[in-house]
Amino acid sequence: MDPIQTVHVKLMASDLLSSTVWPSKPPCFTRKGRPISRAETVGVVVSHERKDKFLRFLVDDGSGCIPCILWLNHYCLTSHGGSSDLDLMAEMTLKQSEIVQLGELVRVRGRITIYRGMLQITVRDVVVERDPNAEVLHWLDCIRLAKQCYDLLPAVTLPRSVLNPPQDGSDR
Amino acid sequence: MEGVQILSVSDLLRVSRPLTGAASLRSSSSSSPPSKRSKLQSIQENPPDAPLLLSDPNPNPRIFSPLKRPVLLIGIIDLFREDVDHCCMSRNQCLSFSDGSSRICCSVLDLDLEIIGREVHVLAWNFVPFKDKKGGVLEVIRWSLPASEAALELAASLSIPSTSSSQDTNLISRSRAFGILRSISPVFSVPCAKQSRDQKNSPCGNLFDAGDSIGFLADVLTCSCELCCNSSSIADCHSSVKENTCHSFTKSMFVYFLTPTSWWRPVLCKLIGKLIIVSGLKKKLIFVGGKESYVMFVTTVKSVVSLPQFPMKVKPLIGRPMSPSGGVYKGVVTGVYMQGMAVELDGKVWLLVTDPQLAPQHCLRVGAVVSVQNFHWVHPKFSWTRMLLLGTCTRTSIDIESFSLSETSCRSRSQSQSLLGKLIDSLTFSARFWVLLLISCFKRKFAMIFSDKEILGSKNKEGLVQTYASNYLPSNAFQSQHGMFMNFCKHDQCPCRSESSLEPLKLAIPISNFISRCEAKWVMMLSQKQQVTEIVGRKHCLDHFICEGISNCCMIRRIISSEDLGFVLMGALKVSPSSGRLQLVDATGSVDVVIPDLLSNNIDQNIYEVKSYKLVLEGLPMQLDHWQYHFDEPLLCRNIFKHFSYKRTLNQLSVYVQFYLGDTTCLNVASHVPSFMVGSNNLKSSGTEMFHLLLVTHKFPANDNFQDEVMSDSSSLFADAFVFPYNLYFRETNEDSQLAEVMQDNQKSKSDFIDHQKDLTEEWSKQPRLVNSSSRIPLTASRNSCQDFERRLCNIPCSHSFTFRRSNLHGSLLPGYLCSGHSSAVQGLLANHPASRILLEFKSDSFSKYQLLRLGAYYILKCSNKGLLCYVEDCECLARGKVLVDSQTNLWSLSFSFDEIMQHEPAQDNSSGVSSVIVGGTTSFQNELLFLQSLDQIQGTSDVHLHLSVGSTEPMKNEMEAVKHALTRFLAMSGCILSVSSCVQIMMGELIRPSGITDPQSSKLLQGNQISLNGDIENVHMYDCKSGSCMSFQYVANGDRWRVCNICIHVNDDHQMVRIRGGISRCAYPVGMGPGANATFHRVLVTCTSSRRPELVLTPISFIVINSIKEVDCQHGKEVFLPSSRLSMLDENFLNTFSLSLISQMKQCVDSKLVRFRCRVVAIHFLVLESHPTGSARLQSGRQFKMPEVKIPLAGFVLDDGSSLSCCWADDCQAETLLRLHETSCQAFFCGHKFSGRAGNRNSQHTIGNQLERILKKNHRVIIRNYGAVPDLSCSDLTFSFDSDNIFSNSEERLLRFIILNACCGSILNVLGNKLDSDSLKQLDSELLESQASIQSLQNVWVKEVWDVNPLNEARNLLL
């Protein structure tokens, strides 16, 4: 397995959004032939839509806007006999949703998913960065990682499922 | 008067206790009938037939006893007409009261001329006995004439009794004075000799047959109108008063009341300001000083003083209130000091009584109301306070307007005839008052050191006060002295004029007042700071810095110059036996001092005057309720005069003073030349004296047991020293007569001091340095002959002159090792001879010598061997490598100088890449105080100064070079002092050293290298105290109830910061240690913690020297948070120098290489939590911001840097940081409910830290394993296991889950680590590794350091 498949790749929005989507179930994403599944981005929240079950927001990192979704529906699961772990995670997710405000500089990690044909990040955790220089450092890290890691290794053989893409993408 | 008991004077004298009585006491029955009980009680208490003046078995002499029944005194009020004084005041102030049984002094409030010589009924009175109980004073408050006397209408007049029978009111006298009595002088006498000399001109000679002429002067303002000028008799005067009310009394006329009319003064002083008629005068011209002449009217035996028969309104004579002279001041006496010379009125104005005859001393007591006329307003220029002074002169009159009932002691003061009294009389008002304050200060300061006679002097010998004052006071503080005639007649020449040109005077205040003043200043400063804080809206002005999660209050340090304080310090230098600190001591207290140029370790009993100094106040910015600290201003004059009760109230304030010995003046000087040199017998018998030269390289700090060791005769005071390869040889010169002359000069200067102390003090004040280079006696040594002599003996490297303080002596340097061969080879050998190290052991009785010993300084030690051939190897003194220093052993400090400037450059060892620091400043920056002056600059204060002169010949130059080389080498050997940055490099060497999982047993031992370190102290705090309680930092600095304390010192330079921890004893805790200080830490240990992190440790042999301090003021409301990664003592900048790498690239690295990567925690797969063992380094107190008492022996984290995942192992601090415990431990967490996630509820027991502690206290050890998929955020696959049998509750499990989840949601961190090698991996739990297959494929890394990311710096580094 390609090691970058298990890590949160640091890619600029333009780079991430131009990744190749392989219509499998679940869909696979490759960048320059290398599979990626998780991503990390740093940018300013430019759009903010809060619903009962989710928070949808756009992170603008200067090169583009990455749609992010933070699911808040853990309670639905816990009310149906979910574990205390889910309960705890629900609380933490709720707390994270509160810190995502328009104009904040946030660091988002999560899985790369697709929704209505658009690439997005399903948020694992979000952190507000107090230092605006964090964004610049992220750019530089993206460049460094791309040069030293993501662009280096040849693409590994894709799994068979990738070769049979699904008809529609689901986001979860 | 029925029922009134008549008392006699003899009754009063017999009882001899303060009494007050009245004839018109209302009986209680007449006003309000008392109850039966109270009436009965009253009768029982005061039976009518009981003796009124029962002698009280326990009389309180400080309280007036009121007589409870009406009493009356009947007697005659008269003048003292006897030649012999009844009391010291009888001439000037006192009337007499006699009733046939006895006669006592008397003072009458509303005196009428008609009662003089007549029997009166005294209706209300006080009686105050004298201290000797041989008399007393009767204060007549109300009086009346008996009916028989009142019927006689006698003229109110004063006349000579002997002529009263033939008195004729129509006496035709040649002169008379009619006018307003403006002022009178005290009674004075003109010596008979002068009288006879001036007999031709003076009328006195005609009046009196023999003896001194005694009298007083009166200034009468007369009227120049026609009516007055033409009135030829007293009757005319009376009629002129009646007819013309438009008199203008402006013309001054002097009346000289000669004996016997001088008796009238007590009456005339009551008539000041009134219209009087003096008849029977003779007009005379009196010459004063042979130049000035005054027309005076002299009384004769026929002179009569009378008052006008008709009342006449007289304009008050008082001048403008603020005029330099004149005016009336009425006030209540609130203090009488210095035998009545200084009187405080209304608690704010001071009356300076220059002549005891001016004041009614019997009645001038606290509580009396006085009226002062004809005084001088003076605003003394005192630098420490502002005050108003009423100066008295010959014209001043002090009248009692109300007697005191609050004080009962009667003062009597005689005219001082001592030298000090004469000095005081010659001074201006300000200077005079200053001297009075000085006397009071000196008497208190030197109460146990000098006798009163030594302080005050005597009739023939000056005391300490006079010596000091006469040298201190400028010439314009002295005023020319005139006789009474001149002073009285030329009153317009006001002495106050010279006051304005006087420089502000400073006072040598008692140290107790000084300390109290410092405390008051501190409280004032803090309250001002508090007010400012409140104004800007911040309520919390307490500033904190947080180290290891423990909040510590920041210190404030203020440096105040002596110029801003306005007083000087004076006392003896002494090493405190309890704290080991050098102190300035007087009888009232002591203050710690720091003397940068003190090199001698032989402090004597001299009294030093310190005019120029810097006061340092250090303390915590505590919240003050300023009402809580009320200080009676310690520099008020009354607090200087009286015994000032002082009790230190602010334990958290540290007060010390820095000054240079060179800026001090020595008041009394002991001999500086040691006895073995002065004692000629000893010198002659020995002929030669040999000294070893020692360079002190280290002092082992004293522990607190040294006081106990006095009895046990053991010691724990040690110092390390090198023996210089040359010995110092003190010898008799070939010119014995010359040496004798030197000795004679020394003896002479010593005796000169005793005989002419004043002259010497003047010299010192001009040349304040203790050792004056100009006073050194130049010797023209016959160098050539000496050299020849020396060279014949052995290989003499050089010759030199040898200065022992004030004395120039001869000596030589001889090689201390047996050498042979060519001279240059010998020199080379000597210069490179391995240093012989010796241990100086100080006995307990030489504690002060140990304390004053300075690191890096040279000392000479007298060798017990006689003769020149003493070698270090064979010397008995240095046998066994140890020298015992007791109270008899002298270690004299030594300084060198050369003909050419010698550079003492310590050799720098650059091979290790570390730089050394030159300690000992030369210049101080603004608001920076030097604690140690460089040795090159303080040659003047060393005991011995050695000047080496370069010879003209080549061998001599070689010799000199050899000595220089030896000196330089020695200084280099004495130890390299590292900067903080260099220290960090060394510590990093420890860090880089390959490490795996080390044996925990071996890590308990302190191992490592010793280094010396110099840097600026950023903060000092305690982390544990053996006293068991939490003490503040300042308590540590000042307290005397602790012996050993564990402190943590943060030291930095411009680039790096390190932390030094360890125990320190009270005696080794230096003055000034705290933020803002530059310090040198000698012999601290570089070691590793159990988590293999390098740290600096204070050991029992570490010695701390403070080099300088700066002012420190913390910012309001600033809370400095030091993240735990910062506590790693390794500076972020330094850590960032490690190359940034990617986890994916680690496979190519060697195992030992430290690699930095920027990553985030994505999962925790293994975590062991333990309760922290007791006696840990953490403070066991209920502080708010503390870290939980948790130990993390091992934790496994999955880290993600964007390139790959890695399995990182960490423990202790690193694991805490990765777990984000320092962030979450303060947050509240409610088990079973929603967590707040905010740090607001810090006091709550529900904080995560507290709950975690409780869990671990119950379960001791918890192991958490995660079997979940690695990158996903989930706690569903966590398993918990623990040591105890307790049931792990859901809430506890929930808390741990939260901690783990929270750790996985943090931001990026910098991690420094190395790959775990296979051996180390095997030491990890194999079962653990097997059970988690998902992480087996990951790269294993051991984490060395974790610290926060500084995005700006790191972005810059990436771009570079």
Helical fraction of chain B: 10-25%
Helix content of chain A: 25-40%
Annotated CATH homologous superfamily of chain A: Nucleic acid-binding proteins
**CATH architecture assignment name of chain A:** Beta Barrel
Count of beta strands of chain A: 9
The shape of chain B is elongated
Largest sheet of chain A: 5 strands, mixed, barrel
Question: If you had to describe this structure to a student in words, what would you say it looks like?
Answer:
- Chain B: Belongs to the CTC1 family.
- Chain B: Residues 22-56 are annotated as: Disordered.
- Chain B: One of its GO terms (biological process) is positive regulation of DNA replication.
- The complex is a heterodimer of chains A (172) and B (1360).
- Chain A is of the alpha+beta class and 172 residues long.
- Chain A is 28% helix and 36% strand.
- A 5-stranded mixed beta barrel of chain A has the order 5-6-7-9-8. A 3-stranded antiparallel β-sheet of chain A has the order 2-3-4.
- The radius of gyration of chain A is 16 Å and the shape is globular.
- Chain B is an alpha+beta fold.
- In chain B, 22% of the residues lie in helices and 30% in strands.
- In chain B, strands 23, 26, 27, 28, 29, 30, 31, 32 and 33 form a 9-stranded mixed β-sheet that branches. Chain B has a 7-stranded mixed β-sheet with strand order 20-21-18-17-16-19-22, covered by helices on one side.
- Classes of the chains: A alpha+beta (172), B alpha+beta (1360).
